[in-house]
Amino acid sequence: MVAGSVGFQCPECVVLGRRQTRQADLPYGGSRSAMPALTSQVLIGINAVVWLAIILTGGANSFLFQTLAIRAQAFCATDRYILAVDSQAQCTAVGATWFDGVSSGSWWQVLTNAFTHLDVLHIAFNMAALFMLGPQLERVLGRTRFLALYLVSALTGSAMVMWFSSPYIITMGASGAIFGMMGAVLLIAWKHQGDVRSILMWLGINVVITFVGSSYISWQGHLGGLLGGLAVTAVLVWLPREQRRWQWPLVAAVAALAIADIVVRALMLAPGTPVS
């Protein structure tokens, strides 16, 4: 018999009770969420509110859209020309329009672009993917780790956009974070020796769509998000239990590397610096 808090239990009863009791800790160190879909629902709500605000304030011409979406380099333009001026004051003085970018100080765009959409199909597909994948990942990783995965993937997507997109092109959407989530699902399935063929097929279809539509789809943001999601998930699920104290420092290192890349590129594209 096994001594319990009240009386004694047979060994078989103890084993059965442990199997039937939900543990508070998740397999990779996170805490079990009482509502695993809540984080995804909040993220979907934020995206929906921002999209609606953009549509109601002018769509592509909305100040909100131009402020939140990411552009690596600011520029001054008329209806026909881009002008060689270095500041918003100079641009306004000649009667042209100034379009801000990360390199001119709009640093928030590296994250706000992941909550910014214009086309209804774009936000619909992204939010559908978030609705399907988000709760599953939160059940495995816990709320805090899932949110870190989502935001760091968005950040690494922005870093890739900064370096490999045309500096004047505006980019937006949660696709980088979504690709990071797809990478996470793939690694977790592989870790547990699951059948990854359907996941690889789904990911492969999205990669093909990305490159076929590269004239209007940001392959840079998608690839950056995927790489960031793979890196964060590898840190979370492959560290041995006794080394899990390194999870957060290593996740922070992935984010710091992305931020460093963004800062370096922004300094290269700062007003007055030739584009390289």
Can you summarize the main beta sheet?
3 strands, antiparallel
Average pLDDT: 87
Question: Segments where pLDDT lies below 50 for 5+ residues?
Answer: none
Distance between the termini: 75 Å
Q: Helices and strands: which structural class? A: mainly alpha
Percent range of helical residues: 55-70%
Write down the Rg.
23 Å
Q: Helix tally?
A: 11
Cross-sheet strand order for the largest sheet: 4-3-5
Label the overall shape.
elongated
Tally of DSSP β-strands: 5
β-strand amount: under 5%
The H/E string reads EEHHHEEHEHHHHHHH
Subcellular location: Membrane
GO molecular function: peptidase activity
Membrane topology: Multi-pass membrane protein
Domain Peptidase S54 rhomboid: 105-237
Could you characterize what this model shows?
- Helices cover 59% and strands 4% of the residues.
- Helix 7 runs parallel beside helix 11.
- It is built from 11 helices and 5 strands, in the order ββαααββαβααααααα.
- It starts with a strand and ends in an 8-residue tail after the last helix.
- By secondary structure, the protein is mainly α.
- Strands 4-3-5 form a 3-stranded antiparallel β-sheet. It has a two-stranded antiparallel ribbon with strand order 1-2.
- The longest helix has 22 residues.
Could you write a compact summary of the structure shown?
This protein is mainly α and 276 residues long.
